[in-house]
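Standup notes
- DV: blocked on the single-chain target, sequence here:
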Amino acid sequence: MKSYRKVLTFDTTKRRELINITDTVQQCVKESGIREGLVLVNAMHITASVFINDDESGLHQDFEVFLERLAPEKPYEQYRHNTYEDNADAHLKRTIMGREVVVAVTEGELDFGPWEQIFYGEFDGKRRKRVLVKIIGS
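- DV (later): unblocked, structure below
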């Protein structure tokens, strides 16, 4: 069995962003030389997420509305966490969207269903963030 590890970095320009990282993860699979196995992709920050869904702009807007209803950014004082930082909502949004995804690798390709794509979800951006890609297999 082989193992491959790579850390991706993102410099986001907004507080909240969704970034399609599917092609980058597929490139990692190619670099790894692993033809059959599993790839784990996880956010290395407690206010960010990695998830799988459709790459459709209306759906991305729906995520924003949905998450903001469940964990609104403001007023900041509604959260007990917000004493030093103002990112309690980002912690909650990450919990809702999840920390990581695991995708099968088959014949050197990400083995997806129709329309599936991997996204990095940033909920407390405007600074450098990291994502771990770990691939195991043969």
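- Follow-up: The chain has one domain: 2-137.
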